[in-house]
Amino acid sequence: MLQNIPSSFLVTQDMHASSGNRFVNLIIDLIIRVVLVNLIDLFGLLLFYVFDYDSLLMWNVNMSEWGQIFLSLFIIAVYYITMEALTQRTVGKLITRTMVVNYDGTKPDLATIGVRTLCRFIPFDAFTFIGGNRGWHDTLSKTYVVDIRKFEEAVLLKNSFDQIGNHNETINE
Question: Is residue 92 helix, strand or coil?
Answer without folding.
Answer: helix
